Amino acid sequence: MKAAPEAQKRLLDLAELDSVIDRLAHRRRTLPELAEIDERSKSYAKLATQAIEAETDAGDLAREQAKAESDVDAVRTRADRDQKRLDSGAVTSPRDLASLQSEIASLHRRQGDLEEVVLEIMERREAADTKVTDLVAQRDEVRAALSTAEDRRDAALGEIDKEAGEVQGRRAGVAEEIPADLMTLYAKLRDQYGVGAAMLHGGRCQGCKVALSIAEMNRLKAAPHDEVLRCEECRRILVRTPESGL
């Protein structure tokens, strides 16, 4: 392949711009905010699930407490009714009086037992409510931190994309100055090796960093200036400059 020396040298400018684009793409993929967001998102999801479970438990205990309190009220109402009946003097039979007094005593014991149950449920519910409050606070704290990290990510990505757009614009201008067949070869090599062209500097290929043999240097020295050379080691386009050592 033949190409004017100046067009070949422009490949070095193109390769440098492509290197900048690659670095920006790597920076975009490895932003520290991305790892932070991933970690905080997992923490938020876990805390959100735990908060829902805790709220469910607290709700169950609230219903359990309401039922227990209703049972206490029912027993108390029945005991009060029997006590009024006893106090009214309507029951005169000794046997019925004894039975009524026994029932009242039993109801009072039952009421006491149920009130103990209510107290026990209240203690469990208080602990459950405290757990809900703590988990919701932790969840909201993580959500706020996640939102802040997302804002930082968006700002960083905006800067990177702006710079990448500017570099892409400069790259397009350089690419227009390079012959189509040379650009096709460069693009193919860039896809294969990551770098499509490298400078020959001081007898060393700057793509693979391998020093060329004396025989190879003599071959390159004898090659026409417009011949497109390739590094025998890495197969990249080898661009000659005054610093090549030829």
What's the arrangement of secondary structure elements?
Layout: H1 5-29, H2 32-88, H3 94-176, H4 180-193, E1 197-201, E2 204-205, H5 214-222, E3 229-230, E4 237-240
Parallel strand pairs: 1-4
Antiparallel strand pairs: 1-2, 3-4
Helix pairs in contact: 1-3, 2-3
Write a concise keyword list for the protein shown above.
single chain; mainly alpha; four-stranded mixed β-sheet; 5 helices; 4 strands
Q: How would you describe this structure to a colleague?
A:
The chain has 246 residues and is mainly alpha-helical. It contains 5 helices and 4 strands, in the order H-H-H-H-E-E-H-E-E. A 4-stranded mixed β-sheet has the order 2-1-4-3. It is rod-shaped and about 135 Å long.
Question: What's the gist of this structure?
Answer:
The protein is mainly alpha-helical and 246 residues long.
